[in-house]
Amino acid sequence: MNTYEFKKIGDEINVSFGLIKRRNFYYLEGEDLTVVLGIQKSSYSSGYYFNLGYVIKILNDKHYPNYTDGKVRLRFEFEMDGKTTDIVDIQDALKDQLISGLMRNIKHYISSITSTGALKNLILKELDLLYQTTLATKQYLKIE
After folding, report:
1. 114: number of Cβ within 10 Å
2. Cα dist. 76→43, 79, 105, 109, 133 in Å?
3. Helix spans in the chain (H)
4. Which of 102, 38, 42, 103 is nearest to 64 (CA)?
5. For 54, how many CA atoms within 13 A lie in the half-sphere containing its CB?
6. For the chain, what percentages of helix, strand and coil (3-state, to nearest 5) are there?
7. How far is CA 144 from the centre of its chain?
8. Residues 39-67 as b or e (16 or more Cβ within 10 Å = b)
9. Going by C-beta distance under 8 Å and a sequence separation of 6 or more, which residues neighbour residue 43?
């Protein structure tokens, strides 16, 4: 798969789930939460990472934040050739694996997390996310 095809697939899937593209990021706005998805090119290969940031509006003053402004951050994981990875190498990736992995991640980490209450529940279910959560966010969500 080439870069154009990879980005086209990403655009189509992200927009089909209601994400709005602005510059290099995709946004889903909730009442008190903005979910930001960014696609990052690897410096070492032909691979890409899908980085996600949950931006709690009351803790952020940017109108269009970057995923790095997220108070809780994660990377999508994909099943590629029987292995779990957080990088999609476009030279090796199969189109079907990319599409199914992207859809699975969006359903789980974006479509179902549109409020701070849902974010808190996700963090409590997936405890690894506690390490990717700022102290201010833990205090705001009343975690720990």
Report:
1. 18
2. 18, 10, 6, 9, 16
3. 3-16, 95-106, 116-125, 135-141
4. 38
5. 30
6. 40, 30, 30
7. 24
8. beeeeeebbbebbbbbbbeeeeeeeebeb
9. none
Radius of gyration over every alpha carbon of the chain, rounded to an integer in angstroms? 15
Alpha-carbon span 103 to 14, nearest angstrom: 8
- Residue 7 binned pLDDT confidence (cut-offs 50, 70, 90): very high
Q: Which residue has the tokens 């779990």?
A: 84
d(CA 66, CA 137): 17
Whole-structure pTM value: 0.92
| Helical pair 95-106 and 3-16, crossing angle rounded to 10 deg | 30
Summarize pLDDT for 105-122 with one digit per residue, the tens. Answer: 999 999 999 999 999 999
